[in-house]
Amino acid sequence: MNRLIHIFGALLSMTLFVGFPVSAQTMEDVVVFIVCDRPDGRQEYGSGIIVSHDGKVVTALHVVEGNDNCRGSIGYRDEGNAKPLLPQPIPQLNVDVAVMRFTDQRQSYDYLGYCEVLDWMKWRPILVAGFPNKTESGAISVRQGILSTVSPTSEGLLETDSLVAKGMSGGPVLSSNRAGIIGIIVGAKPQREGGIAYEAILPTSYFAVALGLIKAERECYHRVRQIELSPENSTWTAGSAAVMTGVNSEEAVCYLSSVSGVFNSSNDKISVEVEEGEYTIIGSQSEGGDLEATVSCYWIE
To answer: In which residue ranges of the chain is pLDDT below 50?
Structure first.
């Protein structure tokens, strides 16, 4: 009976750590509010995303086309303190994309890399970000949705159910783990009879390589949710040192999926803990024995 109690107590001591994905920078560091002066005195508003350390900003062409006086503020709609943005030459792509650059080269800018959209990513969750014209807070508006389609239209557009608003054009479409951009917002496709047929995304596959964008350091999506771990990275046995899984706690969740053997003492324990940002199996068996534990890990998306 005592042995059963010890086993139960040890099982209760197993620790499950749930990590939440974060990017190297927050959206406030990389999403840009854009305002451009039209020749007739009107102003066009849009959004963009910083894509390089030297302050290059990708946005929609229809936001900046024909304007030679555009300004941007990072992370907040602030027309009074917006900094100059210069148009950058790019190849003729025949899609709704443009590149601007902040003129202050004394600063090193945070930026996001890109991921390509592949067929198996259909219906995966996304985030869209930008600055609606009617915003009252001035803060970035972030909205959730899915990749409704992965097969582009004749204009190279993908559909999403994310509700965007005027002023968000050019803003980034990010994977749900915020690892990178998978496209930009280019507007909404109207129906002849009125209303909106779908919200439109221009995927990075149409411009990233041509514009020299940098690939994201982490994967935006994983085709298989379960992480394949080698035996030496997923199994702890009595008498061995802590086992490092190699799995980042911000990108996945790991738990003890099997435990075998006998707990001889109330001091015996096995747990999954986070050491220096990495899931680690830690165990002890004070009186000797044959305890063994295996961990399973799944990507967070």
So the answer is: 1-24
